[in-house]
Every structure is written in structure tokens, then in C-alpha cells.
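Onboarding guide, step 5: your first structure request.
Type a short instruction followed by the sequence, for example:

Predict the 3D structure of this protein.
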Amino acid sequence: MPTVSIEKEIVSNLSKIRHITSSHFPIGHSFIPYDILLTVLDFHVNEKKLTVKNLFVTLPFSDMGLRYHFNRLLNSGWVELVKSETDSRIKEVVPSEKLLSNFSEVIVKLKK
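The system replies with C-alpha cells like these:
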């Protein structure tokens, strides 16, 4: 069982991450945009392709809620859609420069 000091450190780190990401990402009162952005970044940094369909299947939210927040992120320039190289009917979700730039700022602040 973890010691109290390790638990305090973990809670402190989680709180710090939440605070910093809230000031750099459009999270608001819902975790749905946060989870969408983290999923897009996760696939990006691991060099995996993320289709719109796969994004919606991956996250445990209703299609209606996901679609609303996804469209907001898309329309405000946080994520972008590109045609798949293998099938032009398939759209892949990629992080925008705006998301990558803000993510870089989050990383810098977390390392302090």
C-alpha cells in the first residue's frame, strides 16, 4: 500500500495538471473536450492514425455529447480533419498547431 507522502504527491501532481491544462485548453465544465484533446494528442505522440469513428468509439460518452464538443473543437481550431491516405472517404483527426502549441506550454509548466 502506498505511503501517505506518495499519495500526497500524486494528488498534488493531478491537481497541478488540472490547473495548468484548464488555463491552456478549452475544457470548461465538461471533461468531454478534455478527453477528446487527450485522445487526439495520445494518438499523435504515439504516431497512430485516429479516425473520427475510432475517436467516437474510444470515448465513453454519448454520440450526441461527443459530436457537440468535437464540432466545437473543430470549429475553433483545436483539431483538424484530414483525408486518409488509404481511403479518401475516411477522415482522420489530427491536432492543430494551436493544440500542439498549447500542449508544449503545458509541458513546460509541468516541468517547473
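Each response can be followed by summary notes, for example: Helices lie at 4-24, 32-45, 52-58, 63-75, 97-111.
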